[in-house]
Amino acid sequence: MTEADNPWGTDPTPFDALGGQERIRSIVDRFYDLVDADAPNLRAMLPADDAISRQKLFEYLVEWTGGPDLYSSHRGHPRMRMRHMPFAIGQPEVDAWLACMERSLDDNEVTGPVRAFLDDKLTALAQHMRNR
């Protein structure tokens, strides 16, 4: 396979290009650590114990990137916009979420075509969650 076949590179899926569940777990954990430290507007939306939130994002990203269907097998269809509707998500929250995710990807040394692919898709996803 070539990049022309897959915008994330030569691997069959973005999940494979990232290196699987272990790398995605690291991305998610670093993301939430950054939210805790640097994004009070996002942190305020989370329960005091964010373990379930971390697990949900992990399961979602594994499945969303082409790995096993961890999210939908436990929680049904993602319906991400509907699930986030109770939270006031404006451009500041979108920007904070993207900043934390970008730093997490940087810290996990996600580079190359898979990084460009994720930057594009995650930006679109974050903008789709905006409801204010």
Please tell me about this protein's structure.
- The protein is mainly α and 132 residues long.
- It has a single domain, classed as Globin-like, CATH 1.10.490.
- Helix content is 66%, strand content 0%.
- It has helices at 14-18, 21-38, 40-43, 51-64, 70-75, 80-84, 91-107, 112-129.
- α2 packs across α4, α2 crosses α7 and α7 runs antiparallel to α8 (112-129).
- The N and C termini lie far apart (41 Å).
- The model has no long low-confidence stretch (mean pLDDT 94).
Task: Give the helices and strands, then pairings.
Elements: H1 14-18, H2 21-38, H3 40-43, H4 51-64, H5 70-75, H6 80-84, H7 91-107, H8 112-129
Helix pairs in contact: 2-4, 2-7, 7-8
Largest sheet, if any? none
Number of domain modules: 1
Average of per-residue pLDDT values? 94
- State the CATH topology: Globin-like
Order of helices and strands: HHHHHHHH
* Cα-atom radius of gyration: 15 Å
> Looking at the structure, what is the overall shape?
globular
* Tally of contiguous helical segments: 8
- Poorly predicted regions are none
Portion of residues within helices: 55-70%
Assign the CATH superfamily: Globins
Distance between the termini: 41 Å
Estimated share of beta-strand residues: under 5%
Q: Let me know the number of strands.
A: 0
> Based on the structure given, which CATH architecture is correct?
Orthogonal Bundle
